[in-house]
Write a structure and sequence with these properties.
heterodimer; A: 112 residues; mainly beta; 7-stranded mixed sheet; 11 strands; B: mainly beta; 6-stranded mixed sheet; 5-stranded antiparallel sheet
């Protein structure tokens, strides 16, 4: 089984809808991250969490929120989806050292 | 602010034609430099972590090296299955556990 899983893998939704992307990990890592990837813009950090009680904004947090339900689970929500949130979304995990992050398979989100 | 620049953006090779990908970085106190492989529509797959200048790591046809300003990913006798986008990232004392990614190099190996 994969160490980092994401659901759903693909999602098409309409403008204004609320949507949640979920991430689970079995690596036992404390730190979890959400990124989005757009063609030509690379990977950009949305939110990160160093433990269950610690949530931090990343580079592009506007329009997103997160919930860390347990050490192994980290969810990303789009409260009111808009078309420019169409992208690939990746969850990642890491231990405190050596900073190496391990990525999930991604969710392809399309907002119409 | 940490910066990572990868070159070239795209590279076409014939099978067996060795080459190198470049990752130039500017950081305040390097903690680590990371190489990932990403296939289309999939998550980045971890390849290597390098921590200090002079360090080298190898995996099959790939070898990563590190200097104080840049890292190279050398690909020896590549095969079509090596075709992918290769991402470089750094973590620094300035940014803690955060990774700053470069834009990637898209490698295409023709049979």
């Amino acid at each position: 089984d994969a160490d980092v899983t994401q659901t759903p893998r693909n999602r098409i939704t309409k403008t204004g809808k609320r949507i949640m992307l979920e991430c689970s990990q079995t690596k036992g890592h404390d730190r979890m991250y959400w990124y989005r990837q757009d063609p030509g813009l690379g990977l950009r950090l949305i939110y990160y969490s160093f433990d269950v009680k610690d949530i931090n904004k990343g580079e592009i947090s506007d329009g997103y929120s997160v919930s860390r339900q347990a050490q192994a689970k980290f969810s990303l929500s789009l409260e009111s989806a808009i078309p420019n949130q169409t992208a690939l979304y990746f969850c990642a995990t890491s231990d405190s050292r050596p900073d190496t992050q391990y990525f999930g398979p991604g969710t392809r989100l399309t907002v119409l | 602010e940490d910066q990572v620049t990868q070159s070239p953006e795209a590279l076409r090779l014939q099978e067996g034609e060795s080459s190198s990908l470049n990752c130039s970085y500017t950081v305040s106190g390097l903690r680590g430099l990371f190489w990932y492989r990403q296939d289309p529509g999939k998550g980045p797959e971890f390849l290597f972590t390098l921590y200090s200048a002079g360090e080298e790591k190898e995996k099959e046809r790939l070898k990563a090296t590190l200097t104080k300003k840049e890292s190279f990913l050398h690909i020896t006798a590549p095969k079509p299955e090596d075709s992918a986008t290769y991402l470089c990232a750094v973590s620094s004392n300035n940014a803690g556990n955060m990774l700053t990614f470069g834009g990637g190099t898209r490698l295409m190996v023709k049979p």
